[in-house]
Write a structure and sequence with these properties.
Order of helices and strands: HHHHHHHHHHH
Largest sheet: none
Distance between the termini: 33 Å
């Protein structure tokens, strides 16, 4: 299984889809196109319309709201990894840098995605939200390249099983989408095993589910502020499918991984 939902891989993108992927990478300052966009590319007109609708937010106030999300996610108080622990697991300084690059990339793009796509949903499906404020400053994208995303069927069976188990952590429904971050971290199986050991008690006592719920609400609140800035063109016939995809990703893998990535990143020394 290469993807958990239908998608147009970056390597398979042609024409307008390839052009939009290139623009997404440029605007976000990242080397990869996240799965939500690759999934929208399977619906006629959905990627083009969604990206053109939300692109101004990425170039406008969304980075400030995304930074506010990063700063206010309610992470559980939990110990991280020592440098010696990682060295004993075979993760040296060079590999720590690569792992941090992966975590930093997802930390940056997930927070942006949750506020931007929540804004789109709030535009079409308005509902009450908490009062929030944007941050005064926001970081620029690092532009660091991260490794290509390995397909699930390229992973050793035990590593694929570990990815699938981790993908259930913090999820309040049956997972429908495998978080790309865990697949990226599968380049370092020993590190991924340490992550599982760290997270398992938090999963068992319900704190990871609580983290997802609070992050989901936080993303919705900031998206509701941004929603008034959207000026969508006439939507495609696939509008409902596009909104359903955005809702699936925002409420589940993006909300889940925004919190979990922040927790794992905090636990991993530079």
């Amino acid at each position: 299984m290469a993807e958990s939902v239908p998608s147009v891989l970056e390597s398979d993108a042609r024409g307008e889809i390839a052009d939009i992927y290139a623009d997404i990478r440029k605007v976000l300052g990242t080397s990869v196109v996240n799965l939500i966009w690759r999934n929208l590319a399977t619906m006629p007109g959905a990627l083009e319309w969604t990206w053109s609708t939300v692109r101004p937010l990425y170039l406008g106030d969304a980075p400030l709201h995304a930074e506010a999300v990063r700063r206010t996610i309610a992470l559980p108080d939990w110990p991280g990894f020592s440098t010696d622990t990682l060295l004993a697991a075979g993760v040296d300084e060079t590999e720590r840098v690569l792992i941090r690059d992966v975590l930093d990339s997802y930390q940056y793009t997930n927070a942006l995605a949750i506020v931007v796509l929540s804004a789109l949903l709030a535009h079409y499906e308005p509902r009450p939200a908490d009062t929030v404020r944007a941050a005064e400053t926001a970081p620029k994208p690092s532009g660091t390249r991260i490794p290509e995303l390995p397909p699930m069927d390229a992973l050793d069976p035990e590593v694929a099983a570990l990815v699938e188990e981790l993908n259930t952590f913090g999820e309040d429904t049956k997972p429908q989408v495998i978080a790309s971050m865990y697949r990226h971290l599968a380049y370092w199986p020993a590190y991924l095993a340490l992550v599982r050991t760290m997270l398992a008690p938090l999963q068992q006592d319900g704190r990871l589910n609580a983290l997802t719920l609070s992050t989901r609400a936080l993303g919705h609140a900031h998206g509701a502020v941004l929603a008034s800035q959207l000026k969508p063109a006439a939507p495609p016939a696939t509008l409902q499918g596009a909104l359903a995809s955005c809702r699936l990703f925002v409420e589940h893998p993006i909300a889940r991984m925004s919190g979990l990535c922040a927790l794992i990143r905090r636990a991993t020394p530079k």
